[in-house]
Amino acid sequence: MARDYYEVLEVSRTCSEAELKVAFRKQAMAHHPDRNDGCTDAEARFKEVNEAYSILSDANKRAAYDRFGHAGVQGGPQGGGQGFTDIHDIFNEVFGDAFGDMFGQRQGGRGGAQRGQDLRYDLEITLEQAYSGAEVEIVVPAALNCEPCSGTGAKPGTKPTTCTTCGGAGRVRAAQGFFAIERTCPRCGGQGQMITDPCQACHGNGMVRKQRTLQVRIPAGVDEGARIRLSGEGDAGGRGGPRGDLYIFLAVKPHELFERDGLDLHCTVPVAMCTAVLGGEIEAPCLKETAQCEARMTVKVPEGAQTGRTVRLKGKGMPSLRSRERGDLVVELFVETPTKLTARQKELMQELAESCGVKQHPRCDGFLGKTKKFWSRVTGAEESAA
Question: What are phi and psi of 320, to 5 degrees?
């Protein structure tokens, strides 16, 4: 019997989506075949962890699993249809396939070709790659048809034999009272064939798990959580069935200078106090559209600029994934006070301070007016209480 999915990922049944993801990454890294070379137990455990996460990370499948257990998600790791297929799975779990094909044959039929499982790959990219697009090389472990036996599972030079119990049908019938009950053949597991002399390379499975190197094109404008589907790049199908698909989920690394807000990019740039007072120009970083572009732009600082003032550079933000629209680069100014002044510089600052009136400090003047009113109310309340 399959283990409880929550137990496999070592989480509680009330865990959040974020907790589930952290637990999956931890288990997947611990049991990844690359880190456990030659360990069949680790490979089986890795497959079990992936299966558990594929169910619990899907809200609908998780709800079905919480209600019906494995019966509610039988066949879940491959995705596929809902509705009648799910009902058929539940009947099979409860009644042992006693209702046969009441709800129709499943994909490929019993003993026929079976579609390979879909695979998931989490890929972390930089903001620069998301901005301009990139081509990334990834290494994905996938089930491939065994070359020595050509996927049959039988030792080279031999062939699988027809199951003597079901005669190759993959199913057996038994009469029980007024009903003729059809079930999966218990001897061949519904394959219709048996391997008496298994292939040494794949141990009769017909498939082996190997590392595959793929080139993935990252389109410009992708955002956190975007998904790329590579058709036919998943696990190989059984008995000549089609390959599954590979789904690549993207995560964008935090950037040291920029923060993304939709299509806009935000960047805080320090400005010398003198430049903020007198106005001028500063250089701000920007992302490069091409290798020939400069990674910097000139930003005009208006006279008397204050900390927090923003300058918006049109069309210098992120490109849209589905249109020609581009966001803006929003530069926020941070006025920096000079430190470690010389004696002469302090004298000059003192002269400047004495010469400046409230008109040169409108915010200070406004704030002082508010504080005077506040102090007046407090003093009046205290005198009334006395």
Answer: -80, 145
For residue 251, the Cα-to-chain-centroid distance in whole angstroms is 6
In whole angstroms, what is the distance from residue 367 CA to residue 379 CA? 18
Q: In this structure, what are the phi and psi dihedrals at residue 329, rounded to the nearest 5 degrees?
A: -100, 115
Would the pTM count as exceeding 0.70? no
Give the 3-state secondary structure of residue 264.
strand
Q: Are 314 and 328 in contact (CB under 8 A)?
A: yes
Bridge partners of residue 207, in order along the sequence: 145
The answer as to CATH 2.30.30.110 being correct for domain 111-156+198-253 is no
- How far is CA 237 from its chain centroid? 25
* Helix ranges (DSSP H) in the chain: 5-9, 17-31, 40-56, 59-68, 84-95, 127-132, 273-278, 343-355, 362-385
CATH class as words, domain 259-336: mainly beta
pLDDT digits (tens, 9 = 90+) for 338-371: 999 999 999 999 998 888 876 677 777 778 788 8
For every residue of 127-174, DSSP letters joined together read: HHHHHH-EEEEEEEEEEEE-TTTTTS-BPTT--PEEPTTTTTSSEEEE
CB environment 356-383: b (16+ within 10 A), e (fewer): eeeeeeeeeeeeeeeeeeeeeeeeeeee
The model's confidence at residue 76, banded by pLDDT at 50, 70 and 90, is very low
127-157 tens-digit pLDDT = 999 999 999 999 999 888 888 888 888 888 8
Cα Rg of the chain (Å, integer) = 33
- Phi/psi for 89 (5° steps) reads -65, -45
* Calpha distance 133→127 (Å, rounded): 10
pLDDT confidence bin for 277, thresholds 50/70/90: very high
Token pair in block for residue 190 = 């519904």
User: What is the per-residue pLDDT across 239-261, written as a single tens digit (0 to 9) for each?
Assistant: 778 899 999 999 999 999 999 99
